[in-house]
Specification:
The structure is a homotetramer. By secondary structure, chain A is mainly alpha-helical. Helices cover about 70% and strands about 0% of the residues of chain A. Chain A folds into two domains: about 20-60, Orthogonal Bundle (Arc Repressor Mutant, subunit A); about 70-205, Orthogonal Bundle (Tetracycline Repressor, domain 2), CATH 1.10.357. Chain A has helices at about 20-35, 40-50, 55-60, 65-75, 85-100, 105-115, 120-150, 160-180, 190-205. The longest helix of chain A has 29 residues, at about 120-150. The interface between A and B is large, with 52 and 53 residues. Chain D binds a DNA duplex through helix 2 and helix 3.
Chain lengths: ~210, ~210, ~210, ~210
DNA sequence: AACTAAACGAGACGGTACGTCATGTCTTGCC
DNA sequence: GGCAAGACATGACGTACCGTCTCGTTTAGTT
């Protein structure tokens, strides 16, 4: 995944300061918390990072690209906890994801860049690769683990398996995001339990059908 | 819900031009389609509407408020079709909602104002009353109709009923939005059928438990 | 002479603040004294004048145009003193002109805008009308007065008269500017006397020839 | 006169590339013609000369110094032609000087560096030695030759001689510059003849006085 | 029919941020 | 040590919108 503007083919010249990247991304998250998306300015980010505006523009094409990168780093910490059962694993992921969305930089930035991406195809692509697909791995890993535990039967048809995984993913991610950001209600243990119950029940019912 | 700035108590003076409101809202939607949220400017909207900037500011407090109103009008057309069964009704709502989200002005505006609302409580309130609650009513109406048909048992506990309705609502709206805007995959009849199957199966399983 | 950007044909709208013009021009001269031409910035001028940068750009196209106007105001104070004889009048004008060129805002600005004008024809035209031609009037007025006094014969041939006036003008203005700005030597009473002697002697000799 | 930054005392290391100097000065003149003073940038000059910016800064302190050197080279070609009489010699110098000022790089650069020099004493000094004094020598040489021819009497008082030479120099250089750059009229043979007539007549008249 | 008070268009205004550009310095690796 | 390449901090550029303001001009509904 390449979202920063790459340095020119190295034929000479002073190399870019690697520390600046980290400082810029951290400052971006900080500024997002304090100012929100629409009041965040690249000049301000540069100042916080102790870096010139030109340095920032040399590496990122604009506000959206920078924010996507800054937020994407946060999604690296998501992982599938092993809580012993499929239901518990799902609850764990839901709560972990909700905790991430509860952080002000994430909640503000995520919706804003998605909004921008509705009229910017490359940006949508970058969001998908940098952010969204990291979560999809969790769904696949969770199913694999459940199958190893014998909680789920092996899926013989790979096409149907992919469709189901996509559906599950949209349901989980969509419900949690909607609950947290649109309904603005807490995603607590109780909600996670009820949601997991609904999801697993639905999957069982669906598995009984011909898809 | 009143989001426009109200005219002063009428003691005389020229009344506001009612046609201007419609022109402004329509121009706002048009501009959203062409420019997206971040490049939409109020000056541009005023020009398109053939109206002075002052006229616009006399009636709305800012960009977010204006866009919420402009988009809210689109949600007026949502209604619960009677397709004969609970499953068919849900599929109908899903497809209707997806069709609305397919329009560029809706998709852009919805995510953008939600993003702004993460750091603007009054705005979130306005979004809830103008937009979100219009959808939630469909869930409630759908359940009522299903109970009348005998497809669902009456819910004796109003608290549990509310919790369930909220959960269903977050799942439906969240999944459709995520599919349409983030995954950027089509919400077609097939997807709607598979999603409905999952949802109803989950509800049945959940109803068998003590919530 | 029109060097400011004119306001649009008045059909409505808030009128320009006339006081701002004076404040801007005065601030420009002040900044020229302190900073010199190349370090003068329009943002700084705007700040000094207590005016927004946009106001400044609404009225002038750029640095050169602004400085020409600012300096041109200084040339309004030049006038032909009546000192009783042609020689004394010339000496008076020379000293007056030298005093003007001695002011730091004039000396810096004049050469700089002339330099810019070498690759900017409209600017040269503006300099000529706003600044240079004001001085040429002094030559014509001086000759007229000398003719009334009987010190010079009436000039029957208008073409030759024009040529002579242009030549005199280039000699006077050029010599004073060169002495003051390039040689950087004082234009004092002694120099003025010697220069006038040379000029009048030359004119008398030239008048004896067929031009 | 040394206006380039001298290389460090030679203790070893790679010597400077002498060809680069010529390329830089030539590129400077070229860029002056195309861009004018204010739009000329050192980075652009370096690129044209096929040289790194650092090389340029290693040798010159800034834009003014570089341009003075670039233009000074042009003044090397000035010389006093022997046309047989004082009047003809003066006309020849005037035309030669005018031809130099007619070149766009000269006219632009000369005024610009003089403007900068009004607030930069070392720069003025450099201009005087590199450029102005080259012209003044022509005045002195011309007088010497005229005295040898017997057209002018020997000047017994060296102080008065210096004063007169300075005055003549300011008058010639000033008038030609003003005619060419400010009035923007051609300095042709006719003008040169009329100007010389005026000057020589003035000198004769002045010589008749006690200075 | 005249009065009155607000709406309206136009556009100036003080601000703030934009994204670009030039300056003069620095760092790196090759000659 | 010179040199090409290019990153860097700095700071001005000229533009675009912001939201407010000041005009002169409608446009009702009173009186």
């Amino acid at each position: 995944m390449q979202s920063r503007i790459p340095p020119p083919a190295r034929t000479g010249g002073r190399p870019r300061n690697a520390a600046a990247d980290a400082a810029i991304l951290e400052s971006t998250r900080q500024a997002l918390v304090e100012l929100g998306w629409s009041k965040l300015t690249l000049g301000d980010v540069a100042t916080r990072a102790g870096v010139a505006k030109t340095t920032l523009y040399r590496r990122w094409a604009g506000k959206s690209e920078l924010v996507v990168d800054a937020v994407a780093e946060l999604f690296d910490e998501l992982e599938l906890p092993d809580r012993g059962s499929l239901a518990a694993d799902i609850e764990g992921v839901v709560l972990q994801f909700a905790a991430l969305l509860g952080r002000p930089e994430t909640k503000t930035a995520l919706m804003a860049v998605v909004a921008e991406s509705t009229s910017d195809e490359p940006l949508r692509e970058r969001i998908r690769t940098s952010i969204v697909d990291r979560q999809k791995r969790l769904v696949l890993a969770g199913r694999k683990r459940a199958q190893e535990r014998g909680e789920l039967p092996p899926e013989p048809d790979p096409t149907a398996a992919g469709l189901t995984a996509d559906l599950i993913f949209d349901v989980i991610a969509g419900a949690v995001v909607h609950r947290a950001l649109v309904s603005a209600e807490p995603v607590d243990e109780d909600w996670a339990r009820r949601f997991t119950l609904l999801l697993l029940g639905g999957l069982a019912a669906a598995a009984a059908q011909t898809w």
